[in-house]
Amino acid sequence: MKKFYHFLNEAGTDEAGRGCLAGPVTAAAVILNSDFSSPILNDSKQLSEIKRQLLRPIIEHEVVSFGVSHVFENEIDKINILNASILAMHKSLNQLTKKPSLILVDGNRFKPYKDIPYKCIIKGDSKYMSIAAASVLAKTYRDEYMLKLHEEYPEYNWAKNKGYPTKGHREAIRKYGLTKYHRRSFKQLPEQLTLEI
Prior knowledge:
single chain, alpha/beta, Nucleotidyltransferase, domain 5, 5-stranded mixed beta sheet, globular
């Protein structure tokens, strides 16, 4: 795992839940200590849930600063998922107690944040520790939130699918319809855009 120069005081930022049919998109921003290291830290998608949960308190206690923010389905439907993802990143950056000198963004799209330079990096969560740490926080906080929603609507099995478009999730939508947590601007079912003539 590569890491940007320590003296740059960079903040890594990443999001989770962009492709989900329900629930928020969640982003985190992390400024790591210059001596931070972890043999298991990687892109959160490459880690087991057990490893993500193990890493979360380590990251939270050993970083210079971190922030996590949700942007909910109503806002996603208003401004679209790309803008909502960037907004979640900006909101998480707002929570940092120290101003970074550089923002490392996972992906290829971002909007300027204050006067801080930024760099977009494709698959950055597998290249830079600060982005990987942000990906772990974003994923674990969002998963935790979806577990709470599961208690309210257990028939959608969000405890397991976390709102992603699995076969089981779509079958539940066909059977029970949409909840207040579903993203109305998303194609919830494959046949939504077809017409029976």
